[in-house]
Amino acid sequence: MGAGRDYPRIYREFVEWFPDNESCINYLVKLRWPNGFSCPECNIVSEPWYQTRGRMVYPKCRHQTSVTRGTIFDKTRPPLTTWFEAAWHMTTANNGLSAKTLQRTLGTSYLTAWNMLHRYRIAMVRSEREQLSGIVEIDESFVGGVDLGGKRGRGTDKAIVVIAVEIKEPMGFGRIRMRHISDASGNELVPFVCHVVTPGAVVQTDGWGGYNTLRHNGYAHQKKLLSSSADPAHVSMPGVHRVASLLKRWILGTHQGSVSVEHLQSYLEEFTFRFNRRASSSRGLVFRRLLEQAVVTEPIIGTEIAHGFDWRHHNM
């Protein structure tokens, strides 16, 4: 995998690579079928015929398809050049960007920019992504600036997010996972741990009783209790509290301190995608990785996004 050969290095190179829809189609073909085009009808690998508007015809069975069929780009209105531009800015901006910023950058409507960003956020979650392993810190955090649907009273603008962080010894953090939960009960916390952490891992939590059954689920559970009431929580859970701090700063800065509760998980997935690739040698490589995932993510209808994507049916 080489910069300047497999993905553009800088924006000027990006513009040169993708001047029109045809160049975008050719790039997606390479990403979707790296070992040669495979007909979805008869599964034979061979070079297809090309017709107008990117239609592909397989010479044996005459089946017609397109590179965008069965992907997040399927039956969407923006041209691929706009989709590519959105992916580039989303992955190369240091802190990402809001729909309003993308609208101004692309010259599209706000709704178009908003929809593209949310589709890409769904594509950021790989169905086969590996569970966290080794030593994993887990704790909950209250995230402010979340519209909880008109609730009133103290703390009603805060949502509970459970955060898992791989701890790399002697120091440093690995990958993360996050989930918006309705409460901090064991019914919410334990399924999260079982889903994102490989059995046998060392799971470090505070003394909260919601984690008490982890040993029965195959984990080496370590409770990290504060030595005194004066000890700050970040001393015992440095990984989680570092990530929580970055998350809150990201929501406050990039998204003006406000996201709706029904879309909170989508924003958490984008933050996770970005954090887990923070050491990437090239932003252009992250752009390519996002498109690789976009062509293997099934189409999403607008109504699935409008009121909040149902992440229960997606591998988080």
Question: Could you characterize what this model shows?
Answer:
By secondary structure, the chain is an alpha/beta fold. It has a domain at about 135-265: Ribonuclease H-like superfamily/Ribonuclease H (Nucleotidyltransferase, domain 5), CATH 3.30.420.10. The chain is about 35% helix and about 15% strand. The chain has a five-stranded mixed beta sheet, sandwiched between helices. A hairpin with a 5-residue loop joins strand 6 (about 160-165) and strand 7. Helix 3 (about 80-90) crosses helix 5 (about 110-125), helix 3 packs across helix 10 (about 285-295) and helix 4 packs across helix 5. It is globular, with a radius of gyration of 22 Å. The two termini are about 25 Å apart. Mean pLDDT is about 90; it is low at about 150-155.
List the helices and strands and how they pair.
Elements lengths: L10 H7 L3 H12 L16 E2 L4 E3 L6 E3 L13 H13 L6 H8 L3 H14 L11 E9 L2 E2 L11 E9 L5 E9 L4 H11 L5 E4 L14 E4 L9 H4 L1 H17 L4 E2 L3 H13 L6 H12 L7 H5 L10
Parallel strand pairs: 4-8, 5-10, 8-9
Antiparallel strand pairs: 1-2, 2-3, 4-6, 6-7
Helix pairs in contact: 3-5, 3-10, 4-5
